[in-house]
Write a structure and sequence with these properties.
The complex is a heterodimer of chains A (608) and B (570).
Chain A lengths: L22 H12 L3 H18 L1 H14 L7 H46 L2 H7 L1 H43 L1 H7 L2 H39 L1 H6 L3 H54 L4 H42 L17 E9 L5 E10 L4 E5 L6 H8 L7 E6 L2 E2 L5 H7 E4 L8 E2 H6 L7 H10 L3 H6 L7 E2 L8 H15 L3 E5 L6 H15 L4 E5 L3 H5 L3 E6 L2 E6 L1 H7 L2 H9 L20
Parallel strand pairs in A: 3-10, 3-11, 6-9, 9-10
Antiparallel strand pairs in A: 1-2, 1-4, 4-5, 7-8, 11-12
Chain B lengths: L15 H10 L2 H33 L4 H48 L12 H40 L3 H48 L1 H6 L3 H53 L5 H13 L1 H28 L19 E8 L2 E8 L4 E6 L2 H11 L7 E6 L2 E2 L5 H5 L2 E4 L8 E2 H6 L7 H7 L5 H4 L7 E2 L8 H14 L4 E5 L7 H14 L4 E5 L3 H4 L4 E6 L2 E6 L1 H7 L1 H8 L1
Parallel strand pairs in B: 3-10, 3-11, 6-9, 9-10
Antiparallel strand pairs in B: 1-2, 1-4, 4-5, 7-8, 11-12
Helix pairs in contact in B: 1-3, 1-4, 1-9, 2-3, 2-4, 2-8, 3-4, 4-5, 4-9, 5-7, 5-9, 7-8, 13-15, 13-16
The chains are: A alpha/beta (608), B alpha/beta (570).
Organism (chain B): Parafrankia soli
GO cellular component, one term (chain B): plasma membrane
InterPro entries (chain B): ABC1_TM_dom, ABC1_TM_sf, ABC_transporter-like_ATP-bd, ABC_transporter-like_CS, P-loop_NTPase, Type_1_exporter
Chain lengths: 608, 570
């Protein structure tokens, strides 16, 4: 298994991954979800037991037929055959009953579990998700849910029936003659040995296979996803070699796993051979003594050979059960995270922002903001500029409430930010990130994530104000066009106009634009800036900008340098002051005024 | 000098059937071995109940001690054969399956990375990866099904031979009954397959929705869409649950019918064989054998019919793979360049998309900026230079030779178009920069790309390992690493597309200056609207509305051309 076991029920395991529940917590959680259906669960166990018991009659009935045949009594054959028919029908009925019952007990539980996982996942503080990487979360929601689903659908019914069948067969053997059951136990030590041998080694073998297959998929994604780059740099042969290497490694791992599995099967065959031989030998002596009939001895041999399949099923499924258990504990780990509590609602009365000596660090000793003081009055359009790594994005995230400040005070509308409930915070502050994402599905559904109750007219209004209505109407199916992954691909500019439309639908009085135009290219950036400027006028806007034309159009500019505010003032004032911002501005628009910028013939004079 | 440079590995056309043939022919040795051993295994499996029957008949019933020992030895021998055959059979089988999958995977990879590219709709990387893993393996699985079907025939054969010695009618009953059983279950199971496919699709949709929401989590949190998102997932999940529960009852009924029919067949065989044995026409051993085989035959028959459904699946996968392999190349050209020229580019009457009749020359050693009012026009221009597309009309000449005639990699060794959204690959930062020029010295390019502060920001500087396309780097760092890689390739003509969009203006200035110095004497084309970059160009060409409207130095254009000011300084 990839993750270490341990007291990891706490919210933050040291490896940075999301929490994983302990065995006890997993059980408690499963039982809590099962409780409303306890009577169905009891019924399932009963149906399993009776179903397995019914199947035991078959070998006995065959034994009676054999005895009748030996005696040459044709008439005595008929009634055991009737029994066989009855058993067949009863077995069928119990199959329907148990499988349906298992589905009705387990599937709703699983559905609730996956829904709780997704709910918690979406509400996790963004810090937790960033530390573990979204990959961990996606792996849990797709991979682990899949593993548990398969387990419930295929393994649980088969395993439960097999276990009952094994027990019932042992009872059946003992009913014929207790000595048959006793010798059959000779197969148990080899089975146990095989299982122990297997379980000791299976973890690393299958983990290695999973890792190799993951590495292969990653390499394929890397090379194929970057095919344009590979072609541009003529790296094809290198990448083919890398892919072949990874693919062969995964293949070798699967061969190793198969060698290992077949060795396990060999050990199970050994215990089958020992058991059958023992039962036959016991039959030989018991028939000679006259303790049992030939038919009974045959029945015993068949009883035992009928055990092969269920026993093998149980043994082979053990590692799948282990895997499903691990997956379940990872799911319960996320589902067990408490949802953010709904506090008594403090309502934002005035969209102003106030930071006093705010500090923030991502990890111990890596402080990004070193005491920021900043006041943004209601309705101001403030640009935050600075070099990469100055802490602009962190500042934006703090104001948006995605991270709590490590120390200092952050107030919105005069109230400390931690007094707002999550819902009020969401209504009050909207953030458009540099990251671009279009939610897969019809475009109208993407917008409704921002305001589910919005009418189509509301949505079109928002698109209009975001400058997007024109191209949306021109899409193949207009606002109902399927966009995002697997659908119509939007350009980064279009995606960000959609983001702007969402913010307008939320109608937050404070809006933060964190380099929202970075991916859009220069022409797209201008388009977006103009749309944002028009649509957001009147709101309090915090604008993280690297295109300084944006800063020039803002009410006020703040320069952030290495986690501190170093300059603040209007664009004109800062340019005249000749400080940090003035240098950045002259670099940005170096030749805006042909008389003073660096000429192309003398680039060295441009060094700032 | 018309030598073709690359062997045309995909020259022949591919069909689903030819892909299946290839998968089989490439693995004949493993396929043969696995068919043989799995057949041995089936025969041994069939002989287990026969041997038990004989042991009861000849030894247990008669009380003959030495004979009992013989039969025990025979039984143990049978188990040895059974376990060895299974072991070798499944190992060879996996080799045949995986070997075919690997072969197709590499064939696909080669096609996807082919220098000539692929025309037609762009495929998502995820789709291609799933073709190269899932579908390639599904084609390989036909080798598995083939060996299993052959072994199924062996199992049926041995069962028939074992029975036919005792009684012909009994043999007929057992065989016909088993076949009938199989047919009925298959007919019943078919609508079930459709239903479960629909159910799986619902579940997959719910999972896809969740993965998409997580992928956009930061964006989602930005506008506070968590609650509606959860509600949306919940309704998808409930829909999947409803489908599952509806199909659960149907599925268990079909399974139950199979169980009832198998039990009925057993009862019928028992009745007939029992009466024959009671009448003395067959031995007790034959009775036991018949009853045992009636239960055994279902497995080999399943193996035989399993081939049909696997073939259908493999054929579908093979068809998808063939479609990729057969996609026409995006660009042609097979000629080798006559001689390495200085790198003079010339567009003559070039049209692509909305660009009409463009004439443009980039002299060797020139540093040229191109400002395009429409990003689509910039993209069309770059695609032709990158040899991702051929011009619709007109020609692009490289040192006097038409690039469309040249093998694409011939052009690329002279003209490198560094993609704006360039991917970084797994490995260290240094590996990435050196990837196109293994021996390159890093110092100058790292400095020119403005990466000298990397040591401060990243704990291991240039030795920092990049995971998953460099997601651990910031946008600005990624862009600068990609730029350093393009500079390290040290080609005669370097084409940069918006190389500095993710860095602040001071860094941008420093980078442009560094690039300008490093590229001194070689040709460089910058397609950009960044004033800082344009100010360093010898000449700026403005592409507006599909034609070149003006050209000059940045200062001249800023001073004299209001439209230029609008495009660049707005």
């Amino acid at each position: 298994m990839r993750r270490r076991p341990g007291p990891s029920a706490g919210p933050e395991p040291e490896d940075g991954l999301l929490p994983k529940a302990g065995a006890g917590e997993t059980w408690r959680y499963a039982l809590r979800l099962l409780r409303p259906r306890w009577y169905l669960a009891v019924l399932t166990v009963l149906a399993l037991a009776v179903g397995a018991a019914v199947q035991l009659v078959t070998p006995r009935a065959l034994g009676w037929v054999i005895d009748a045949a030996i005696e040459g009594d044709r008439g005595a054959i008929v009634w055991p055959v009737q029994v066989l028919v009855l058993v067949a029908v009863a077995t069928g009925v119990f199959q329907v009953l148990t499988r349906t019952l298992i589905a009705f007990v387990a599937e709703p539980v699983l559905a609730t579990l996956r829904e709780e996982v997704v709910e918690r996942a979406l509400h996790l503080p963004s810090g937790a998700v960033e530390r573990s990487g979204a990959g961990d979360l996606v792996a849990r929601i797709s991979g682990d849910v899949e593993v548990v689903t398969t387990a419930i659908r295929n393994i649980v019914p088969t395993l439960a029936m097999s276990v009952f069948l094994v027990w019932m067969t042992a009872v059946g053997l003992a009913v014929i003659d207790w000595r048959f059951a006793a010798v059959a136990l000779l197969a148990v030590p080899t089975d146990l040995y095989a299982l122990r041998w297997y379980l000791r080694r299976s973890g690393p073998v299958f983990a290695a296979q999973r890792v190799a297959e993951g590495a292969r998929a990653q390499q394929l994604l890397d090379s194929v996803g970057g095919a344009d780059t590979v072609r541009a740099f003529r790296l094809g042969p290198d990448h083919l070699r890398l892919m072949a290497g990874r693919s062969e490694e995964a293949m070798d791992c699967s061969f190793r796993a198969m060698r290992f599995r077949t060795r396990f099967w060999g050990r199970m065959h050994l215990s089958e051979a020992i058991g059958v031989a023992a039962v036959l030998v016991a039959g030989f002596y018991l028939v000679r003594d006259g303790s049992v009939t030939v038919g009974a001895a045959t029945a015993a041999a068949f009883y035992f050979s009928r055990l092969f399949e269920p026993v093998n099923m149980v043994l082979m499924m053990i590692d799948m059960v282990q895997e499903a258990g691990a997956a379940l504990s990872r799911l319960v780990g996320v589902a067990g995270v408490p949802l953010p509590e709904q506090r008594e609602e403090t309502v934002l009365t005035e969209p102003s922002i106030d930071l006093r000596d705010v500090r923030f660090a991502y990890g111990a000793g890596h402080e990004v903001l070193h005491g920021v003081d900043l006041a943004v009055p209601a309705g101001e359009r403030l640009a935050v500029v600075g070099a990469s790594g100055a802490g602009k994005t962190t500042l934006a995230k703090l104001v948006a409430g995605l991270h709590p400040p490590a120390s200092g005070e952050l107030r919105l509308g005069g109230q400390p930010v931690d007094r707002f409930g999550p819902d009020e915070l969401r209504r009050s502050v909207g953030l458009i990130t540099q990251e671009v994402h279009v939610f897969a599905g019809p475009l109208i559904e993407d917008l409704r994530l921002a305001r589910p109750e919005a009418t189509e007219a509301d949505l079109e209004g928002a698109l209009e104000r975001a400058g997007a209505l024109e191209w949306v109407t021109a899409l193949p199916s207009g606002i109902r066009t399927v966009v995002g992954k697997g659908g119509h691909r939007l350009t980064p500019t279009q995606a960000q106009e959609l983001a702007l439309a969402r913010i307008l639908l939320v109608d937050a009085p404070i809006v933060i634009l964190d380099e929202a135009t970075a991916e859009a290219g220069s022409a797209g950036a201008r388009r977006l800036e103009l749309a944002a400027q028009r649509a957001l006028s009147g709101r309090t806007v915090l604008l993280v900008a690297h295109r300084l034309t944006q800063a020039a159009a803002a009410d006020r500019v703040v320069v952030l340098d290495r986690g501190r505010v170093v300059e603040s003032g209007s664009h004109d004032a800062l340019v005249t002051a000749g400080g940090h911002y003035a240098r950045m501005w002259s670099a940005w628009s170096s030749n805006g005024d042909p008389t003073k910028g660096p000429a192309s013939s003398a680039p060295s004079s441009a060094s700032a | 000098m018309n030598a073709a440079v690359a062997p045309d590995s995909t020259g022949q056309t591919h069909t689903a059937a030819s892909i299946l043939r290839r998968a089989r022919r490439g693995q004949l040795r493993h396929l043969g071995a696995s068919s043989f051993f799995l057949s041995c295994h089936q025969v041994a499996e069939a002989l287990v109940p026969v041997t038990i029957g004989l042991a009861v008949d000849r030894a247990v019933a008669t009380g003959d001690g030495p004979s009992m020992l013989w039969w025990l030895a025979a039984l143990l021998g049978l188990f040895v054969v059974l376990t060895c055959a299974m072991r070798w059979g499944f190992r060879a089988n996996l080799r045949a399956t995986q070997g075919a999958g690997h072969d197709l995977r590499m064939l696909l990879a080669e096609r996807v990375l082919d220098p000539r590219g692929a025309a037609g709709a762009e495929r998502m990387p995820g789709e291609l990866v799933s073709l190269a893993t899932g579908d390639a393996l599904k084609v390989g699985m036909l080798n598995y099904a083939t060996a299993m079907a052959i072994s199924g025939f062996a199992g049926v054969g041995v069962a028939v031979v074992a029975l036919v010695r005792f009684s012909l009618p009994l043999t007929a009953l057992v065989t016909a009954g088993s076949v009938l059983l199989l047919v009925i279950t298959h007919v019943l199971g078919r609508p079930l397959e459709h239903r479960s496919a629909a159910e799986r699709a619902k579940m997959a949709a719910a999972t896809g929705l969740a993965a998409d929401l997580i992928a956009g989590l930061r964006v989602l949190k930005g506008f506070g869409g968590e609650r509606p998102a959860v509600a949306r997932y919940r309704s998808a999940s409930r829909e999947a649950l409803g489908a599952t529960l509806r199909s659960a009852a149907a599925e268990s009924t079909v399974r139950a019918v199979a169980v009832v029919l198998a039990g009925g067949l057993l009862a019928a065989v028992t009745l007939v064989a029992g009466r024959l044995a009671a009448g003395g026409s067959i031995s007790i051993g034959a009775l036991i054998t018949a009853v045992g085989l009636a239960q055994f035959l279902v497995d080999p028959l399943n193996r035989i019919t399993g081939f049909g459904s696997q073939r259908a699946q493999s054929l579908a996968s093979a068809g998808r793979i063939a479609a990729i392999l057969d996609a026409p190349h995006a660009v042609g050209g097979t000629r080798q360049a006559t001689a390495a020229g200085p790198g003079r580019l010339r567009f003559e009457g070039f049209s692509a998309g909305t660009i009409r009749g463009l004439d443009l020359e980039v002299a060797a050693g020139e540093f040229v900026g191109i400002v395009a009012s429409d990003p689509k026009e910039a993209a069309a221009l770059l695609a032709v230079l990158a040899r991702d597309a051929d011009p619709e009309t007109g020609t692009v000449l490289l040192d006097g030779e038409s690039v469309a005639q040249l093998y694409p990699d011939e052009t690329r060794s002279v003209v490198l178009v560094a993609p704006h959204d360039a991917e970084l690959f797994e490995g260290t930062v240094a590996d990435n920069i050196r990837s196109a020029a293994p021996g390159a010295e890093l110092g100058p390019v790292v400095a020119a790309a403005g990466l000298d502060d990397l040591e401060e920001v990243l704990s291991e500087g240039l030795r920092t390992r990049l995971l998953h396309g460099g997601v651990s780097l910031s946008g600005g760092q990624r862009q600068r690493v990609a730029l350093a890689r393009a500079l390290a390739a040290d080609v005669p003509v370097l084409v940069l597309h918006e190389p500095t969009t993710a860095v602040d203006s001071l860094t941008e200035l420093k980078i442009t200056q560094g690039v300008r110095q490093l590229r001194d004497g070689a040709s460089t084309v910058c397609v950009t609207s960044s004033p800082a970059v344009l100010s360093f160009c010898d000449r700026v060409v403005v592409l507006d509305g599909g034609v070149i409207t003006t050209e000059g130095t940045h200062e001249e254009l800023v001073g004299s051309h209001p439209r230029y000011r609008e495009l660049v300084l707005a």
